[in-house]
Specification:
The structure holds two protein chains of two kinds. By secondary structure, chain A is an all-alpha fold. Chain A folds into two domains: 4-201, no CATH class; 208-234. In chain A, 78% of the residues lie in helices and 0% in strands. Chain A is built from ten helices and no strands. Chain A has helices spanning 4-11, 14-41, 45-48, 62-88, 91-104, 109-128, 133-141, 146-173, 177-196, 210-233. In chain A, helix 1 packs parallel to helix 6 and helix 4 runs parallel beside helix 8 (146-173). Chain A is globular, with a radius of gyration of 21 Å. Chain B folds into three domains: 2-90, no CATH class; 106-210, Glutaredoxin (3-Layer(aba) Sandwich), CATH 3.40.30; 215-411, Rossmann fold (3-Layer(aba) Sandwich). Chain B has helices at residues 2-22, 27-60, 63-86, 88-99, 108-117, 136-149, 164-173, 198-210, 235-243, 273-281, 295-303, 394-407, 431-461, and strands at 122-127, 153-158, 182-186, 189-193, 215-218, 248-251, 261-265, 285-289, 306-313, 329-331, 346-348, 351-356, 371-374, 377-380. In chain B, the strands form four sheets. A six-stranded mixed sheet of chain B has the order 6-5-7-8-14-13. Chain B has a four-stranded mixed sheet with strand order 2-1-3-4, sandwiched between helices. Chain B has a two-stranded antiparallel sheet with strand order 9-12. In chain B, helix 10 (273-281) links the parallel strand 7 and strand 8 (285-289). Chain B is flat and about 100 Å long. The chains are: A mainly alpha, B alpha/beta. Chains A and B meet through helix 2, helix 7 and helix 10 of A and helix 1, helix 9 and helix 13 of B.
Chain lengths: 234, 462
């Protein structure tokens, strides 16, 4: 199913580990700087009790301060990593091979794209696994809302999947780069709104928010209906 | 193209129906939207797919059931309409929602609280100020919305000069009330609210309902001040208690007998002999936190059968915090009746162990006997428990609320801080540990992957 040969090649490629090291040092520095700025900000007590409401201190939860911003940062890094890993590491060569393969055999183009998406995504997910150390560090000092993290990692999961999809389709069909950038931006904003921005997260405070999931499902129904309508009758 | 529009409308219908079920706040808007949708949908349906659908329905239902199905649909629709039309509260709320700005609106939690708990007869009266800023309009606007959710709340504005009888009645119940204040009355209980805002009025209703209005904080011996928001002050705990319906009232020994509960937080100066005698004769509940290094406090406690050791406890279980305040004591006062809500360690600068002869509740702590509870007396010897720095540890606020729960207001229950929300889950990391985090996440972890890359490179070459 998956392109195991290419995956194996990628995991044996030293450049991959260099990219992971750069990714981790950047995200680690971001995590550290956010933690430091949280510690500085939380020392300004009077600002947080303005208006006689201690509840305004809710915003001082370290996890809610750090992780939405950190995941937004990851999302940009992932977008860059998808394009680097997808095209930089011999992806074009693979594309040409696929075209030859496609012409010579009876393999479907959908299957080919799917395999490419999965290969690229798995590599990025492998890169993201070490980032679990950040919430674990925070968990030593205070309790972490794992629902927020679940939501954020789900968001990243979808993001990487979609970015890899766009990357693969653009690679095969040679769409204009502007189309890819536009689609990337739309997806990024959408995911930011529903996953990284914790207020609308479907798993806010660890509880499943039915209204958000319903809206997402309805939006999916609308999109599917639109697609079917366009395909069948226009 | 027409059929494409039909498909889009079908999906929109799903969206609206889902919203109708899930989002109760937007029902009126959604119903209007749904009606428009149904009309357009019907027209489209009639124009495009009626014959097709009739054939499907014909296959699904035999002719004699058609009338029955239509009747059921009409019946359900009528029931739904009746529910919305005759439940006037809902209509009122929707009318309010449509006609008013939502900037001053109550939150969902506040509405839920009003509906569930404010069910007795309450009276909320605003004393119109004779000079200065008049907030009558704001008060009326807030109450107009509030009474939509609280069934038995009545409200009025009185002018102290124009309505002297009413004002003197209120003054007799609450002598300290001022012009511009709000008087909240429930049966024979009453509280004064000193600001006009939805939060303050709700807080007043909560206070008058729970009867948790009188907790005095003794001042004058270098205690942490409730106005102080610096590291050593007690401003945060005062705000937290206020959020839970308890207003800490500053007090001294002249007025101590008027308070059913008195809290002494971290006194630094010795108490005089007269003051100790007053404390001995105090009939209310007394909570002493810190101050165990003062000989006068030790003397008072020994008279009550509690002997405090002169040796400080130095026990550090979690070294991540020991860079603060020199020696830190972390203590989980668990499975104690006073602290049933406590799950996290209390963190204090230092503490003294105690021996209690006839304590009402057993001394059960993990690292030292630092908590003693007797009838009308609660003592915790850990210093700085309530300071703005230490109260930021969740365990500290839980411990304090647990102690007050036992001491306050004739044993009526305090609402403890929620397990997750509402309690500031704050923490501190010492600079030493911050450096370790930096080393781990920025240098060591990426370096390990670089090493892996080098290993790969070498093995590929090999």
């Amino acid at each position: 199913m998956l392109r195991s040969r290419e995956l194996k090649e990628l995991f044996h490629n030293p450049v991959f580990y260099v990219i992971v090291a750069v990714f981790l040092s950047l995200s680690g520095y971001k995590f550290f700087s956010l933690l430091q700025s949280f510690i500085e900000e939380s020392s300004y007590y009077p600002e947080y009790v303005y208006g006689s409401k201690i509840s305004s201190m809710m915003g001082m939860d370290v996890a809610y301060y750090i992780f939405p911003q950190l995941f937004m940062f990851y999302s940009y890094l992932c977008v860059m990593a998808v394009s680097v890993l997808g095209s930089g590491l011999g992806h074009d060569r693979l594309m040409d091979m696929d075209k030859i393969e496609l012409l010579s055999t009876s393999k479907s183009i959908k299957g080919l794209i799917f395999r490419k998406i999965m290969s690229c995504s798995i590599v990025i997910y492998a890169m993201l696994i070490p980032t679990l150390i950040y919430p674990l560090i925070i968990n030593i000092f205070t309790s972490v809302d794992w629902g927020l993290l679940l939501s954020s990692y789900t968001g990243i999961f979808f993001l990487v999947l979609m970015m890899s999809g766009i990357n693969s389709i653009i690679g095969i069909f040679r769409f204009p780069v502007a189309v890819g950038i536009f689609l990337n931006m739309v997806i990024l904003l959408f995911l930011h709104f529903y996953f990284f921005e914790n207020m609308y997260s479907p798993f806010f405070f660890g509880a499943v928010k039915l209204d958000v999931i319903t809206i997402l499902l309805s939006a999916l129904a609308l999109a599917t209906s639109f697609y079917k309508a366009v395909r069948m009758y226009i | 193209m027409k059929r494409a529009i039909f498909f889009i409308f079908t999906a929109l219908g799903f969206f609206v129906l889902f919203s109708l079920i899930i989002l109760p706040e937007y029902r009126l808007r959604t119903i209007i939207f749904l009606l428009v949708y149904l009309v357009v949908y019907y027209l489209l349906f009639k124009a495009m797919v009626k014959e097709h659908m009739s054939a499907i329905l014909g296959r699904m239902f035999p002719k004699r059931f058609k009338l029955f199905a239509v009747s059921i649909i009409i019946f359900i629709s009528v029931l739904l309409c009746a529910y919305f039309v005759f439940d006037t509260k809902i209509i009122k709320r929707q009318v309010y929602w449509v006609t008013h700005s939502s900037s001053m609106s109550l939150t969902h939690e506040q509405k839920e609280y009003l509906e569930r708990y404010i069910t007795d007869n309450y009276e909320v009266i605003y004393i119109k100020p004779t000079k200065g800023q008049d907030n009558s309009a704001l008060f009326n606007s807030i109450m107009q919305e509030l009474v939509l959710y609280a069934q038995n709340v009545r409200y009025s504005v009185i002018h102290p000069v124009a309505q002297p009888d009413k004002y003197s009645q209120i003054k007799s119940k609450a002598p300290s009330i001022l012009h511009g204040n709000i008087f909240v009355l429930m049966g024979d209980r009453s509280v004064i609210v000193d600001a006009v805002s939805p939060y303050e009025i709700l807080n007043g209703l909560y206070r008058v309902k729970s009867g948790l209005s009188n907790v005095c904080i003794l001042q004058g011996h270098g205690e942490a001040s409730i106005d102080d928001f610096s590291e050593y002050g007690a401003g945060l705990i005062a705000e937290m208690l206020r959020d839970k319906g308890i207003v800490l009232v500053r007090s001294d020994f002249n007025y101590i007998d008027l308070c059913p509960t008195t809290v002494i937080i971290d006194p630094k100066k010795e108490f005089s002999g007269t003051e100790i005698k007053k404390l001995e004769g105090y009939t209310g509940s007394l909570v002493i936190i810190g101050g165990a290094e003062l000989s006068s406090i030790r003397k008072f406690l020994s008279l009550k059968g509690i002997n405090v050791s002169k040796e400080k406890i130095h026990q550090v279980e979690q070294s991540v915090l020991r860079d603060y305040y020199g020696g830190l004591l972390l203590d989980i006062v668990k499975e104690h009746p006073a602290t049933i809500y406590m799950k996290n360690p209390a963190v204090v600068a230092h503490a003294y162990s105690m021996e209690c002869n006839d304590c009402q509740m057993p001394l059960m702590t993990s690292s030292g006997k630092v908590l003693a509870l007797k009838k009308d007396l609660s003592v915790f010897t850990g210093s700085a428990l309530c300071s703005n720095f230490f109260i930021r540890f969740k365990g500290n606020s839980q411990l304090l609320f647990g102690m007050l729960n036992n001491a306050c207001c004739g044993g009526s229950a305090f609402i403890p801080p929620d397990s997750e929300q509402g309690v500031p889950k704050l923490f501190a990391i010492s600079p030493r540990f911050l450096s370790m985090i930096f080393l781990t996440v920025v240098l060591i972890l990426p370096f390990l992957f670089l090493l892996l890359g080098i290993y790969c490179f070498r093995s590929n070459r090999g």
